Amino acid sequence: MSYPPTPLRRTALLAAMISSVVFGALAGVEAALAEPSIKDHVSVDGEHTANRRIVAVGDIHGAFNGVRTILREAALIDDDDRWAGGDAILVQTGDFLDRGPGAIRVARLLMELQRQAPESGGGVVVLLGNHEILNLIGDLRDVAEGVFKDFVDRHSARRLEVGCNEYVAFHRQLALRKDRRPPPRRELRDQCFAERHLGQLEYLEEIGPEGEIGRWIRGLPSAVRIGSVIFVHGGFGPEMAGQSLEQINAEVRREIHVFDHAREHLLDRGRILPTSGLIEMLTAARDLQQADAESPGSTPPEVLQLLDVEEWQMIRDDGPLWFRGYARWDEEEGCELLPPILESLGAEHVVAGHTPQRTKRITSRFGSRVFLIDTGMLTSVYKGAPSALEIRDGRFKALYIARETLLLEAELAASSK
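RE: above sequence
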């Protein structure tokens, strides 16, 4: 059963235009960071950044007014929200989605700044956070209802009606396939309307592989190195020592690719619904695994690889998007465990978000090797305040509204290792 057309399905030409714009923006950022051999924003040659101003912003979580305020405070955008940072580099360390109602506006602002900054010799690098991954795998529990409302159009009610009819048929067929008594149609219908929102299907399409924002998110790296500073959402546990940034970024991107292909296959086979998330996909994958045991090769490898999802770097607690050790280690533990990790990554410092600081202030730890920059910008949830970390001429400054704090004065390495 097909849904009434959404804006993203109108023409193949529109999809081609979206692809051109998004990937052109990514290419523009790479060019702005002035290193022909850069791939996927993995690293930036220090000789091109030694005298550049770098501004890092942590978790935004849909706080559109908050991030706009701190970017203006840092002189990176003007009153019209256009790039005004010259040759500065803005790094956003992930978790721009979820919880706040302005999540999509934040994403589009970052995308637009990526397009604009290279015109002045600057650059904007946006990283994946765990909440971007949650959205990509269909876990929408933290999406503010107001975000769905932004996608409502005159066809949304009809799409929801069609989707719930499909939901009823799917779950009744699923029960029959498992030799169970099908739930009553009215019960399933009521459950569907209770669980879904107007605009939710459209949102899923926008963040899917064919959506403008979805395509952009899938091209974001998990971590970057600029000079001697690593930027990452969560961090790197000791178990990841020895892996290069190139390997880490490539692995997360491979996992997203595997997930998308598995999802496409399960949808085509009628094993899941367009609104299904990872849990439903795993159930379907286990069913197909049993069928594959009887007829080897009948199930695509991507579907079977889903069964190992708990070991994926984009999901693991010690992976770059979820690790909280830098916030939880005591000083002695961190000073012992951190140096080998930094050495293996060719860095002297790490800038990370992910864990809101109790002080609501940017925090330096382990001899100023680590800077934690999640200050709970979404005030309605975290009661924090907008902030940014400025790195320039060997100085690390915490920027807040109408004031700044010098966190560390040190000589940064002239080139990345």
